TrEMBL record:
Family annotation (SUPFAM superfamilies): DNA/RNA polymerases (SSF56672)
Pfam families given in the database record: RVT_2
Name of the protein this chain belongs to: Uncharacterized mitochondrial protein AtMg00810-like
Highest rank taxon of the organism: Eukaryota
Length: 235
């Protein structure tokens, strides 16, 4: 079918037909097909069905337990929070919260803190999640070719290990597309070293995104702006 495997994501395959593009994303035995024209998408799905035994689930609604919707959906939730009595239940819950950070970037820092104390269950973040079921990631449509990144760090944030906690978010136009909050594996010996580490982490993500967008036929405007606190850098 003449699809080309991405050098930046080995589960991503692209095919160019003139000025149009078709993309296939593979996860185990699940396929996500998208492209610039509906007719091309339908043709690729037909070709796949001829070569593989597969079931067409139609328009994207769920993928990797993530719900996709073209409209904002708000659900009522009157259920009460359940007290966590066993550490095992708490550990399973933290695992689910880690997965939830894929669509709830604003809890990334809280979840990485909770994951460090698996022996001491906390319920505050659970109450917050249950009280805000309608908060989703919004991906606005429109033409844009600009990336902008924001990064920050808290030097010696962990009172036990004194390790640095870094975080960044990357936006494509008005859409939030990448984020991370993580405690580093080593101790930074100065605030200057901490700044270099957070910028290195952010720049690594920017380079990967620029390369991925280039494979998808999108030329990102360079240099990319990265903001850290009051400083402004161009990469």
């Amino acid at each position: 079918m003449d699809f080309i495997q991405s050098h930046y994501d080995y589960s991503l395959f692209t095919k160019r037909i003139g000025a149009d593009l078709v993309v296939i994303l593979v996860y185990v035995d699940d396929l996500l097909v998208t492209g610039s024209k509906l007719l091309l998408i339908q043709q690729v799905r037909k070709d796949l069905q001829e070569k593989l035994k597969m079931k067409d689930l139609g328009e994207l609604k769920y993928f990797l337990v993530i719900e996709f919707s073209r409209y904002q959906k708000v659900k009522d939730n009157d259920s009460e929070d359940v007290q966590l009595e066993e550490n095992r239940n708490y550990q399973r819950l933290v695992g689910r919260l880690l997965y939830l950070t894929m669509t709830r970037p604003y809890i990334a820092f809280v979840v990485q803190v909770l994951s460090q104390y698996m022996h001491a269950p906390k319920r505050r973040v659970v109450r917050y999640i249950k009280s805000t079921p309608g908060l989703d990631l919004f991906m606005p449509t429109g033409s844009c070719n600009k990336l902008i990144a924001y990064c920050d760090s808290d030097w010696g944030a962990c009172v036990e290990s004194r390790r640095l906690v870094t975080g960044y978010v990357v936006k494509f136009g008005d859409a939030l597309i990448s984020w991370k909050s993580k405690k580093q594996g080593i101790v930074s010996r100065s605030s200057a070293e901490a700044e270099f580490r957070r910028m290195a982490t952010t720049v690594t993500e920017i380079v990967w995104l620029v390369g991925l967008f280039k494979e998808l036929g999108m030329d990102i405007a360079l240099p990319v702006t990265a903001r850290q606190q009051s400083k402004l850098l161009h990469i």
